[in-house]
Amino acid sequence: MDTFAPPDADALPDPDTLPVVLVVDDEVRSQDAIRRTLDEDFRILTASHADEARQWLTRQAVDVILCDQRMPGLTGVAFLKEVRERWPDTVRIVISGYTDSEDIITGINEAGIYQYILKPWVPDHLLQTVRSAVEARTLRQGLDRLDLELRSAAPVLRARSQKKLGEARSAFGFERMVRAPGSPLEAVCAMAQRVARYDLPVLIGGESGTGKELLARAIHYASPRHAQAFVLENCAAIPDTLLESELFGHKRGAFTGAFEDHIGLFQRAHGGTVFLDEIGETSPAFQVKLLRVLQEGELRPVGSTRAVPVDVRVVAATHRHLEEEVRAGRFREDLYWRLAGVTLHMPALRDRPADIAPIAERLLAEVGAELGRPGLRWAPGTLACLARYAWPGNIRELRNEIARAIALSDEETIEPGVFSVRVLQGGGCEARGGSVAAVQALPSHGTLAERLEVIEAMVLREVLLRHRWNKTRAAAELGLSRVGLRAKLQRLGLEPTQVG
């Protein structure tokens, strides 16, 4: 029997920054071949059998072990089982010239073997495998450190979480629903606050831009589910096939382009609230699938055969009259009653003119801060002009109009004259100097081409500011291609710093 004298301290390689690979193989030629393949990227240690390898492991930190399967005494898999128990951080790789060994087949999982390499191995493949093993070990150590840090910081994180939750409840509570005393919105908010505490589905109706999403968020943060997620999806924004995947998830390979598993919004919101905006735009086929999820409390990701339980509260919204859609056969009646546990209706802005002034004050502060112009004020009579306009686009239109006014005004006080013609005419503001102010903004000298160029630059500046220099959106509003818009900006000398 061969005897082994463990290496003394002087025989150990000098420490450096290279990862350490221990090669365990009873054939010296195999050791040399592996060394030649790896020695540029790694520090190589060698052992001819398990006893010698144990000596290295007790004296030297090792990143990766490359172990031959057939050695004198202990087999490679049997030795790596021991390594897993005593040195679990070391990545274990077995090399073998045999594929029918029952020991290998049954022992790979028990030994936690990272990779099985069949002889004769390819140098490039071996090198890449060891590199990947070192990366995996580094990543695992990083995750372990992060887990330890998170555990030690748990009390601080819990305190911060509670603070953030309190801020969210304040930011998205019913007080966020700006309204004047006696507003029709008061009754809506009062009813919503009462039903928020009960785990009932809510259906919110009303025109686009009336604030249905704000009401849904307020309901969530006033409910027992407030500490869990609030997720939303606009059902009209994507086709049914993608909507099913987005809400319920899909398995890898379920369809073309499904390269990995995808967790749907319902699972992400487990314990919380799902807000389905424009639910009236969904097809009957999708309505059947949604109904099944709501009835059974479980879903099947696309391409999966296993049902996943989910616990969510559904708040849905639509600008359509769903009762009429049901009567017309375009919306399932059974789904309607599943969604309409409680129905709320957001009144249009024209039906609550007293709310326009406080909403405009809030928006002026918010949009002004976003555009880098805080502290703006309304000129006398301006809010009265806004209150007389019908606002068919509701709050969304009001916000856009205020952004336009800020972009076109160089003063700290916003005058009526910077509003669009439709607002000036609808609000009866011409007699108050609105049209005069608009005309005064036009160039008063130069050729027709020069004057048109100035007007064109003004329009581009206003649209770009309103869209925060998003050229794609600005081009779409102006009916231009992105290339065409860029050409105009270059011709007119408009740069982002000039526009802002």
TrEMBL record:
<dbReference type="Pfam" id="PF00072">
    <property type="entry name" value="Response_reg"/>
</dbReference>
<dbReference type="Pfam" id="PF25601">
    <property type="entry name" value="AAA_lid_14"/>
</dbReference>
<dbReference type="InterPro" id="IPR001789">
    <property type="entry name" value="Sig_transdc_resp-reg_receiver"/>
</dbReference>
<protein>
    <submittedName>
        <fullName>Chemotaxis protein CheY</fullName>
    </submittedName>
</protein>
<dbReference type="InterPro" id="IPR011006">
    <property type="entry name" value="CheY-like_superfamily"/>
</dbReference>
<dbReference type="InterPro" id="IPR009057">
    <property type="entry name" value="Homeodomain-like_sf"/>
</dbReference>
<feature type="modified residue" description="4-aspartylphosphate">
    <location>
        <position position="68"/>
    </location>
</feature>
<dbReference type="InterPro" id="IPR027417">
    <property type="entry name" value="P-loop_NTPase"/>
</dbReference>
<feature type="domain" description="Sigma-54 factor interaction">
    <location>
        <begin position="178"/>
        <end position="407"/>
    </location>
</feature>
<dbReference type="Pfam" id="PF00158">
    <property type="entry name" value="Sigma54_activat"/>
</dbReference>
<dbReference type="GO" id="GO:0000160">
    <property type="term" value="P:phosphorelay signal transduction system"/>
</dbReference>
<feature type="domain" description="Response regulatory">
    <location>
        <begin position="20"/>
        <end position="134"/>
    </location>
</feature>
<keyword id="KW-0067">ATP-binding</keyword>
<dbReference type="InterPro" id="IPR058031">
    <property type="entry name" value="AAA_lid_NorR"/>
</dbReference>
<dbReference type="InterPro" id="IPR025943">
    <property type="entry name" value="Sigma_54_int_dom_ATP-bd_2"/>
</dbReference>
<dbReference type="GO" id="GO:0043565">
    <property type="term" value="F:sequence-specific DNA binding"/>
</dbReference>
<dbReference type="InterPro" id="IPR025662">
    <property type="entry name" value="Sigma_54_int_dom_ATP-bd_1"/>
</dbReference>
<keyword id="KW-0547">Nucleotide-binding</keyword>
<dbReference type="InterPro" id="IPR002078">
    <property type="entry name" value="Sigma_54_int"/>
</dbReference>
<keyword id="KW-0804">Transcription</keyword>
<dbReference type="GO" id="GO:0005524">
    <property type="term" value="F:ATP binding"/>
</dbReference>
<keyword id="KW-0597">Phosphoprotein</keyword>
<dbReference type="InterPro" id="IPR002197">
    <property type="entry name" value="HTH_Fis"/>
</dbReference>
<dbReference type="InterPro" id="IPR003593">
    <property type="entry name" value="AAA+_ATPase"/>
</dbReference>
<dbReference type="GO" id="GO:0006355">
    <property type="term" value="P:regulation of DNA-templated transcription"/>
</dbReference>
<dbReference type="Pfam" id="PF02954">
    <property type="entry name" value="HTH_8"/>
</dbReference>
<dbReference type="InterPro" id="IPR025944">
    <property type="entry name" value="Sigma_54_int_dom_CS"/>
</dbReference>
<keyword id="KW-0238">DNA-binding</keyword>
<keyword id="KW-0805">Transcription regulation</keyword>
